[in-house]
Design a protein that fits this description.
The protein is α+β, with helices and mostly antiparallel strands and about 190 residues long. About 25% of the residues lie in helices and about 30% in strands. It contains 5 helices and 9 strands. The relative contact order is 0.14. The model is unreliable at about 175-190 (pLDDT under 50).
Length: about 190
């Protein structure tokens, strides 16, 4: 990987790390002393990253500088990720590169939640490892069990979570529109 390629990946990685930790640009600015506009330009790739900017961001996120820059250990293909807890769910990133197709292992605790369908650009694929996963997708309300998968366009209102009967562990892959995995889910009662 060339230096230019490494530097080009820093902005998207910074944005994803900040969003994964549910931190606003304003909050990160306050913590690092870097202006919101500079942070925004860094994330969008309009500003080249420098040590003066990356060191305080690494400290704020409590990660090594290598993790911000995305330099994988030499000759080691393993993805070493730390779990990220968001909204009660624990996510383990299974991919290193920002942008493109992303993969996560997710553990949703046992809880009953009222579905709150959302939409966004992209395409998602879910595969249940253990437990039961409730998926509300447009007009459909289905329960996936271990070994079942679902795929959908994320522009369709969707929500997924525990059925409330126990925890559920699943894989989630998502990416830009058009990166599709072909699997099916059976509707409830079928």
């Amino acid at each position: 990987m060339t230096t230019d390629e490494v530097l080009a990946g820093v902005g998207p990685r910074l944005r994803q790390m900040r969003k994964d930790r549910e931190v606003t640009l304003a909050a990160l600015s306050e913590t690092t002393g870097i202006s919101v506009s500079t942070l925004s330009r860094l994330e969008s790739g309009l500003r080249k990253p420098s040590l003066e900017l990356l060191l305080p961001i690494a400290r704020a996120h409590q990660v090594a500088l290598d993790e911000l820059v995305g330099t994988p250990p030499a000759d080691d293909p393993r993805v070493r990720s730390k779990p990220i807890v968001m909204g009660g769910r624990t996510h383990w990133p299974l991919t290193r590169q920002p942008g493109g197709l992303q993969a996560y292992k997710v553990l949703e605790p046992r809880r009953r939640q009222e579905p709150d369908p959302r939409t966004h650009e992209g395409y998602e694929w879910l595969y249940v490892l253990s437990g039961k996963l409730r998926l509300v997708l447009g007009e459909h309300d289905v329960v996936l069990t271990a070994g079942e998968a679902a795929e959908f366009d994320t522009r369709v209102p969707h929500w997924f979570g525990s059925t409330g009967e126990g925890p559920v562990e699943f894989l989630s892959l998502f990416g830009p529109q058009g990166e599709r995995m072909h699997v099916r889910a059976r509707p409830k009662g079928a």
